[in-house]
Write a structure and sequence with these properties.
Keywords: Membrane, Transmembrane, Transmembrane helix. The chain is of the alpha+beta class and 140 residues long. Helix content is 38%, strand content 26%. The chain has 3 helices and 9 strands; from the N terminus they run αααβββββββββ.
């Protein structure tokens, strides 16, 4: 009878020691969680789109015709002109513009908060050319 009791006690100790996870199992689970977390981070990260300025101007010209709204561009972004206040609708960074050429062939220097491009309904824009800091010319 004593031998049977010792076997039961030994069995109890053996099952008590086998209750946890091994180090390899824990490492595999942590690896799977980190890979899936990294994948979800990349999937749900919003991509930044660098749309050329000339395409943005054309888009807002068409939008102005359809909506009847007036828009203007400055270095902070693109705004919709309102009666009492203006609303930022696109915070696209438009820095790097040095000069603009108006419709009267006047060369105007662009400062930090200068409205350098006004778009009115019926495809009317206030400038015809943009000159960037590196000398690149964008003809509208």
């Amino acid at each position: 009878m004593g031998l049977l009791e010792e076997r039961v006690i030994i069995k109890t100790y053996q099952t008590y020691l086998n209750k946890g996870f091994t180090l390899i199992e824990l490492l595999v689970v942590i690896t799977i969680i980190s890979i899936s977390a990294g994948t979800f981070y990349l999937l749900f990260q919003t991509p930044t789109q660098n749309v050329p300025l000339s395409n943005k101007v054309k888009t807002y010209m068409e939008l102005s015709v359809y909506t009847g709204n007036s828009y203007y561009f400055n270095n902070s972004g693109i705004f919709i002109s309102g009666d009492t206040f203006d609303t930022l609708i696109d915070d696209h960074d438009i820095r790097g513009i040095d000069y603009v050429i108006s419709n009267d062939d006047e060369k105007l220097k662009v400062y930090s908060d200068t409205k350098f491009l006004n778009i009115s309904p019926s495809y009317e824009i206030s400038i015809k050319e943009i000159i960037l800091n590196d000398g690149t010319r964008i003809i509208l």
